[in-house]
Design goal:
This protein is α/β, with parallel strands linked by helices. It has 20 helices and six strands.
């Protein structure tokens, strides 16, 4: 626990598993770390964790109350719960705090994005711009300046937005000696609004790399949300250029065949095809830049995919269909003399692996298809939610022989769910010796 606390305080990158371990062992903290841990969870994009942790921040003085409400409101706003976030902010006293004013401006901006009425939309964007501009004039901080410029742009005041960027925001950002995530993201947004797509793409890409290395995916998600808000106002080919150069992290959802049991009459994924499958999976992970993965943990495709994502430095979220002992006996340790169980245990040792508790605790002879179908749907749901939260592209990856079994809960059933949501699909087909 001491090492984890030190890691948290030193701002080194934390995994979701480490955050959860810190939460579970809060009785061993040398001091209350709720505010620090909640903010780290926000940086990572773990908004629900951030909210839950922030609820435990002690209300020792007015400042701690403000901090608690701010974190909780920001977590709600990033999760899309704008009305609840607004209600929390109403409990705060009037303040010229950059964080509080910035959050109020953000909520107005998000409300504008969600509004259909064009006149109301412009009004909300203008109100958001005025809030950010007022605090920018007081504090002279570039992040309020760029938000004001972006909202002016969205309100139709493009000349005012460009003037603000050229004369005030851009010089502030360019004066920073060692730009970090926020500075690079702001520079990207400045040059986007100035129609310099090549330079914008370079800065956005640098911001994405910083976010990956430092574990600030949640912060970068705010940048991406703003980018996509603005993108509709620019030529599609120019925006596509920026997106390609960003080389965004991808989220991968996986379902695939298990290794064939000995004596299978018609081969589907024979053991001798393992290295061919592994190689193709590694190439897909590289091509799609998959850094976050969701799947189960059966022998064969699942474990190969998990191993390769971890080799690439990614983070894996595992959803077993049943309690682990039952999952291992039914889907992992099923090939005599093979080492799939040991390989799975090695995966579990990695700090970048998080294992969900199974939703089903037993399985019946007639209900196995329902359990596996539920698991497929559950994995899809959390992957889609993560993609929407972080604004990262979602890709489906499968090891599949192409045959449609029609069985509920099978690989082709999972693929059908993905296709209904138009998720791009990469297929690895095991090569069968003739």
């Amino acid at each position: 626990m001491e090492k984890l606390v030190e890691k948290l305080k030193s701002r080194r990158k934390l995994s979701v598993r480490e955050v959860r371990e810190l939460i579970r062992n809060r009785d061993k903290w040398p001091e209350d770390l709720s505010a620090l841990l909640a903010r780290r969870a926000l940086e990572m994009g773990e908004n629900f964790y951030a909210y839950d942790i922030a609820e435990n921040i002690p209300e020792n003085d007015p400042q701690s109350v403000v901090q608690k409400l701010h974190i909780m409101a920001l977590a709600l706003a990033r999760s899309g719960s704008l009305e609840r976030a607004s209600e929390l902010l109403k409990k705060l006293p009037d303040s010229d705090s950059t964080e509080i004013v910035g959050l109020k401006s953000r909520i107005l901006k998000d409300m504008a994005v969600n509004t259909v009425d064009e006149e109301k939309k412009r009004e909300l964007f203008k109100r958001s711009a005025e809030l950010s501009l007022s605090i920018f004039k007081q504090k002279n901080q570039y992040y309020n300046g760029i938000n004001a410029a972006s909202c002016l742009f969205m309100a139709g005041e493009k000349n005012a937005a460009e003037k603000l960027i050229r004369e005030e925001v851009l010089p502030l950002c360019q004066a920073v000696e060692n730009p970090g995530l926020w500075e690079e993201a702001t520079l990207g947004e400045c040059f986007l609004l100035l129609n310099d797509y090549e330079v914008a793409a370079t800065h956005y890409g640098t911001a994405a790399n910083i976010a990956l290395q430092s574990g600030q995916l949640g912060n970068f998600a705010s940048t991406l949300k703003q980018f996509y808000m603005l993108a509709a106002n620019f030529p599609e080919n120019s925006i596509q250029l920026v997106i390609e150069k960003m080389h965004l992290p991808g989220i991968g959802i996986f379902s695939g065949h298990m290794i064939d049991r000995p004596g299978r009459k018609i081969p589907r994924f024979p053991a001798y095809a393992e290295e061919q499958v592994r190689s193709e999976l590694a190439e897909i992970i590289r091509k799609r830049n998959i850094r976050i993965a969701f799947c189960s943990c059966a022998c064969g495709g699942d474990i190969l995919f998990l191993e390769e994502v971890l080799k690439a430095g990614g983070e894996c979220f595992i959803v077993p269909p049943l309690p682990m002992e039952a999952t291992i006996s039914g889907s992992v340790d099923i090939i005599p003399g093979a080492n799939w169980k040991e390989r799975l245990f090695n995966i579990f040792k990695n700090d970048n692996v998080f294992v969900f508790e199974p939703e089903c605790d037993e399985i019946g002879v007639d209900d196995d298809a329902i359990v596996y179908d539920f698991t497929n749907r559950y994995i899809l749901g959390i992957a889609v939610f993560r993609s929407q939260t972080l604004h990262f592209p979602l890709f489906g990856v499968t090891v599949w022989n192409g045959e449609k079994s029609g069985l509920t809960g099978g690989t082709d059933s999972a693929i059908a769910h993905w296709q209904q949501k138009n998720i791009p699909l990469d297929i690895v087909t095991p090569e069968i010796k003739k």
